[in-house]
Backbone:
């Protein structure tokens, strides 16, 4: 059974009876769903849609939210994460809004229990399944914006699969810094044509898009675009033959892989922070659900051994 | 040690909301809560601005939005817009003719003597911006007496309800191009139902500007006035008033008046351009209109309409003539939302940024050994 995420302390808010299930009116939901179908049919293509104003800030995940609200039904179990955590302020805020406007749905913090996952900045560490949909919130939908400010011109470049200026930017990075400097939002070619902005997921998560079992939908509310990486589709980060794509390194000075100070995990994306008491730099899993699972697995193992 | 850094979000949000609610009510025993009618009347221009930027003519909800947002114009417009976006589009009005506007103010800068005459109306244009210290401690009696005296001294039937349009006179003289009847027949672009995919029709540009943020549209229009482009505008007519809204009767289809909306409309005449087809040169036009009494916004809009038409025709030569630049940067809801979002946690992307910088620094050090110690 899905466990209810802890948002009950926001009783301060009350749903207004005036709003439809899922907040949006049915015409708006239908438009979003049609755009989703088009996005799946043309992998990586940014489908323009009208994008309603939501009652939270543009930039706080209104694109992802419109996708979730248009797709969710009473039978669904939802997980919302931000920065990998279910308890991050914005994740809590989005989840409580969805619960408020979609009475009857279940929410969970466990990846394995959710069939709809809305996320900002991360793809869960645990591999997703075919019956799951991942919704990513996107601030900048267009990978070409770093080389071309005009949307009109970018649209033509995408149509012609003309990514030469993007490749020149990567090349210039190597000349100037001996390293590609794009840290997140790494340009990724989908199904051998359209290059997408992979939303601000770290490079660590980009390989998870390739041949994903789950459908990945990306929604940019302010920029009014929806795009998709359908299941079992090629997703290739831009790279050169002699300069391969690389994810973030979590090796220490002695080239030893750092581990999570909490669960001991040595293969997850880590957040670094400074311990307030000891002043020591600590590392911890960014994905809180994964960290809990690893911790549980470790204590079970220790229990068996002890 | 527990999971750190981003725990307890729910409690924090709830606490922050309660604290803000305390700030709204902290005057406590010594004050009455703001009355919605008071907001609509005594904060008349603020109220106008919110209806205009929110893109919804709903005087009561606009007052509520101002009240609940503690007077923050961006937040108030936002709340009104978000409410609006949940409403389906049920019926469309025909194109409304502003010559039927019940005018409360109309001026022209092009002619001294316009048909119907100038009507200054309620305006602070020529007021001295001195601090009116007599209002520091205004008594309710004094307050009521002002309005009573004005009503006593003025007979409102002295003034006609409607006025002819100044542009019609210019058009009759052949100084303006004839009305493009074909354009009037075209279905206007609905920005609430369709995304802007450039190039966009003029109706899309006009409706985007009609609900733009006042400061944003003024700033871009001002860049044009100062010399990043210059359409050389003359205000042919600026009018403020109540426009009757006509809708088809659900059964008979006959047009009936369902109410009226307060609007500001501005028409500027700009310098003439070469006619490509060799026709007679005429002045060109810029149009601005928005809900409420917002003159600066309507004038800015009419200037940008002219600049954008020129940019659409000949290619933009400066930011104010570039439809993408103007139309994608003047919406207050979009821009304030994105500005605000930078306050949210960006731990993951910043971790990723640090990875790139450290790797680049290491490579730099490898190439320049001892450089930092020199």
Residues:
């Amino acid at each position: 059974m899905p466990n209810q995420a802890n948002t009950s302390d926001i009783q301060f808010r009350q749903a207004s009876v005036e709003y439809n299930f899922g907040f949006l009116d049915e015409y708006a939901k239908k438009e979003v769903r049609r755009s989703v179908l088009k996005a799946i049919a043309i992998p990586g293509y940014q489908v323009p849609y009208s994008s309603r104003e939501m009652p939270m800030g543009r930039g706080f995940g209104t694109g992802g939210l419109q996708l979730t609200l248009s797709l969710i039904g009473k039978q669904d179990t939802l997980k919302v994460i931000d920065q990998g955590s279910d308890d991050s302020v914005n994740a809590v805020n989005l989840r409580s809004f969805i619960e408020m406007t979609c009475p009857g749905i279940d929410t969970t913090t466990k990846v394995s229990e959710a069939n709809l996952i809305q996320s900002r900045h991360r793809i869960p560490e645990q591999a997703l399944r075919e019956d799951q949909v991942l919704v990513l919130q996107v601030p900048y939908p267009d990978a070409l914006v770093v080389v071309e400010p005009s949307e009109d011109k970018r649209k033509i470049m995408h149509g012609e699969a003309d990514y030469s200026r993007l490749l020149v930017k990567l090349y210039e990075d190597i000349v100037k810094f001996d390293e590609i400097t794009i840290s997140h939002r790494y340009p990724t070619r989908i199904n051998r044509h359209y290059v997408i902005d992979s939303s601000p997921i770290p490079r660590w998560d980009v390989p998870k898009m390739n041949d994903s079992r789950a459908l990945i939908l990306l929604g940019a509310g302010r920029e009014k675009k929806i795009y998709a990486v359908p299941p079992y589709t090629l997703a290739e980060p831009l790279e050169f033959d002699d300069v391969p794509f690389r994810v973030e390194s979590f090796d220490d000075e002695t080239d030893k892989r750092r581990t999570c100070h909490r669960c001991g995990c040595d293969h997850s994306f880590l957040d670094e922070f400074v311990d307030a008491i000891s002043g020591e730099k600590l590392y911890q899993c960014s994905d809180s659900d994964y960290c809990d699972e690893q911790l549980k697995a470790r204590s079970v193992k220790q229990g068996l051994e002890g | 040690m527990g999971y750190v850094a981003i725990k307890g979000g729910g409690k924090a949000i709830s606490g922050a909301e309660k604290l803000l609610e305390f700030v709204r009510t902290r005057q406590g025993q010594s004050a009455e809560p703001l009355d919605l009618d008071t907001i609509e009347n005594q904060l008349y221009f603020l109220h106008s601005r919110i209806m205009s930027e929110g893109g919804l003519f709903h005087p009561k909800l606009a007052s509520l939005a101002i009240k609940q947002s503690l007077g923050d114009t961006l937040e108030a417009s936002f709340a009104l817009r978000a409410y609006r976006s949940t409403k389906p589009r049920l019926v469309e009005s025909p194109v409304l003719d502003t010559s039927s506007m019940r005018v409360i103010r109309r001026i022209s800068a092009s002619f001294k003597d316009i048909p119907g005459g100038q009507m200054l109306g309620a305006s602070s244009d020529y007021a001295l911006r001195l601090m009116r210290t007599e209002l520091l401690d205004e008594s309710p009696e004094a307050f009521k007496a002002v309005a009573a005296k004005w009503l006593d001294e003025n007979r409102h039937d002295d003034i006609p309800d409607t006025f002819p349009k100044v542009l019609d006179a210019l058009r009759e003289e052949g100084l303006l191009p004839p009305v493009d009847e074909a354009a009037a027949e075209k279905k206007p672009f609905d920005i609430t139902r369709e995304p802007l995919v450039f190039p966009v029709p003029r109706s899309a540009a006009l409706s985007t500007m009609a609900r733009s943020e006042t400061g944003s549209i003024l700033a871009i229009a001002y860049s044009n006035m100062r010399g990043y482009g210059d359409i050389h505008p003359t205000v042919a007519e600026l009018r403020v008033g109540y426009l009757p809204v006509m809708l088809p009767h659900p059964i008979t289809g006959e047009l009936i008046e369902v109410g009226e909306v307060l609007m500001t409309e501005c028409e500027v005449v700009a310098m003439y351009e070469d006619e490509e087809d060799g026709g007679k040169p005429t002045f060109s036009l810029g149009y601005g209109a928005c809900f409420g009494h917002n003159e600066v916004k309507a004038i800015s809009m009419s200037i940008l309409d002219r600049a954008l038409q020129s940019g659409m025709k000949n290619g933009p030569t400066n930011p104010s003539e570039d439809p993408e630049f103007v139309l994608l940067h003047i919406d207050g809801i979009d821009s304030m939302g994105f500005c605000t979002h930078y306050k949210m946690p960006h731990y993951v992307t910043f971790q990723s940024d640090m990875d790139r910088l450290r790797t680049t620094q290491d490579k730099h050090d490898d190439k320049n050994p001892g450089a930092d110690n020199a």
In short: The CA atoms of residues 26 and 356 of chain B lie 48 Å apart. Strands of chain B lie at 102-107, 234-248, 255-270, 284-291. Chain B has two domains: 18-84, 98-125+160-336.
